[in-house]
Design a protein that fits this description.
The complex is a heterodimer of chains A (113) and B (112).
Chain A lengths: L3 E4 L2 E4 L5 E7 L5 E8 L3 E10 L2 E4 L7 E2 L9 E3 L8 E8 L8 E2 L3 E5 L1
Chain B lengths: L3 E3 L3 E5 L4 E7 L6 E7 L6 E7 L4 E3 L3 E6 L4 E6 L8 E8 L6 E3 L3 E6 L1
Parallel strand pairs in B: 2-11
Antiparallel strand pairs in B: 1-3, 3-8, 4-5, 4-9, 6-7, 7-8, 9-10, 9-11
The chains are: A mainly beta (113), B mainly beta (112).
Chain lengths: 113, 112
């Protein structure tokens, strides 16, 4: 089944403790991206990747890192999480870019205490 | 800056009626638009898209209308069913750009 898989679904952590949210897609998509979803603000892009080893900042990249060493994986790294990073996170992929339909993962609810 | 928004945060319709969800955008260079449906506890799911060289596109029970003059698009759902309960997002992008801008969503609820 074609899908985008994120892990974990839920995560509670404390300020400053490094964490990684994994994302994997099995559709051989070139484009992958991360979003955070906050009430009243819609989906905001954190980082995106047009292809392997190519990553760029989205609208809200501060406090986040990503890597794209393989086509299928696009992990989101929070080196030193802070409470304002408490949010619902989505990974998404598309065949080639943002002007195509995106396939989303099921989301990761992160709480930073 | 650029924005894509939805006119109403919530919409309640009678089961079996048609639903119309509206969206406005600010960037006249936007040339590709998508509607997504997000059910509770799930990620957004693609419903239908439209490019700026069209003003109407139909899918199964859904129609998207694009009015470039007033920078407005709408999603029409025919014969609304309980399974249509969700939050609906519009999103817009430029072909030459690498990011997509999402609206904040309209929550559609169905009255029995």
């Amino acid at each position: 089944e074609a899908q985008v898989t994120q892990n974990p679904r839920y995560l509670i952590t404390v300020t400053g403790k490094k964490l990684t949210v994994t994302c994997s897609q099995n559709m051989n998509h070139e484009y992958m991206s991360w979003y955070r979803q906050d009430p009243g603000l819609g989906l905001r892009q954190i980082y995106y990747s047009m292809n392997v080893e190519v990553t760029d900042k989205g609208d809200v990249p501060e406090g986040y890192k990503v890597s794209r060493k393989e086509k299928r994986n696009f992990p989101l790294i929070l080196e030193s999480p802070s409470p304002n990073q408490t949010s619902l996170y989505f990974c998404a992929s598309s065949e080639q870019g943002s002007n195509e339909k995106l396939f989303f993962g099921s989301g990761t609810q992160l709480s930073v205490l | 800056g650029e924005s894509v928004g939805l006119h109403l945060p919530t919409l309640s319709v009678q089961e079996g009626d048609n639903s119309i969800i509206n969206c406005a955008y600010s960037n006249s260079a936007s040339d590709y638009f998508i509607w997504y449906k997000q059910e509770s506890g799930k990620g957004p799911q693609f419903i239908i898209d439209i490019r700026s060289n069209m003003d109407k596109r139909q899918g199964q029970r859904v129609t998207v209308l694009l009015n470039k003059t007033v920078k407005h698009l709408s999603l029409q759902i025919a014969a609304t069913q309980p399974g249509d309960s969700a939050v609906y997002f519009c999103a817009g992008t430029e072909s030459s750009a690498s990011k997509i801008i999402f609206g904040s969503g309209t929550r559609l609820s169905i009255r029995p």
